[in-house]
Amino acid sequence: MLEHKNMVPKKPVRVVMIGAGGFVGSAIAAQLAENGVSVLPLTRKELDLLAGDAPSMLKDLLRPDDSVVMVSAIAPAKTVPVLMQNLKMAEAVCVALSEAEIAHLVYVSSDAVYADDANPVTEDSYVAPSTIHGMMHAARELMLKSIAHAPVAMLRPTLLYGAADPHNGYGPNRFRRQAAKGGPILIFGEGEERRDHVFIDDVAQLASLILFHRSAGAFNVATGVSTSFNDIAHMVAKQFPGTVIKNEPRQGPRPHLLHRHFDITECLKAFPTFRYTRLENGLALSKDEV
User: Fold this and answer.
1) Is the pLDDT of residue 288 over 60?
2) Dihedral sign, CA of 173, 179, 192, 222?
3) Quick check: 109 and 140 in contact, CB under 8 A?
4) Angstrom distance (rounded) from CA 24 to CA 31
5) What is the mean pLDDT of residues 110-137?
6) CB 132, CB 78: distance < 8 Å
7) Hey, is 216 helix, strand or coil?
8) Do residues 125 and 118 make contact, with C-beta atoms less than 8 angstroms apart?
9) HSE (CB half, 13 Å, CA atoms) of 88?
10) Strand pairing partners for 195?
């Protein structure tokens, strides 16, 4: 749950964006620039967190009135070596923060930190990841919270979509690209699984709100509306007349987590005027270059 340190929103003096070249980092940086916030974007070119000199380089860049957003990760983390690389990246940030004063820290985590049986998911749900990816984020959350001498906010977004998504994961991102290329949309089985999907611009807006309020605590980024993959496929097909939807046999059993729902009460309390983008509208805004 979030605690606003700034009850009245106040523009951050400067935001240091670690991972500014990625899907989420670039969206947040663009939103902050639109809001008139000074941003120091750090991509892997400017700051390689796996390099030996990363802690000292980052420490020298930080100022006492900086807000830091840590979004850099090798994702998805599916193997032990990738897990360890991600922890090393977080360690570099922790070393720098242990020696530098900052005003605020925001870590972009994932809903994968929660136990599979959390349904509906809230900010009070148990942190008990069942995947290496979830464990990676849970460990990084704990590392950063333990070292930062400033308010720490942990954003835990669920599945994200948008034109610039690099992963092409099953769902809105892949379906739009399949349809845009004139091919069929392929869904597994009947596509009955229900998931919550968040438009990338909403993540950026919420991160900006958290930075302006200098908020601390855990915060789920989810719309509260779970939609089946079958329904998503039909939404996309409507935007590309003539698109065919094909059902592919599953190569294994149905996912043990068939549906996942979120209770977004805390979001409504923290930011009463914020409204998520409806899925159909977000799909229409996701213009891919094919």
Assistant:
1) no
2) positive
3) yes
4) 11
5) 94
6) yes
7) strand
8) yes
9) 14
10) 227
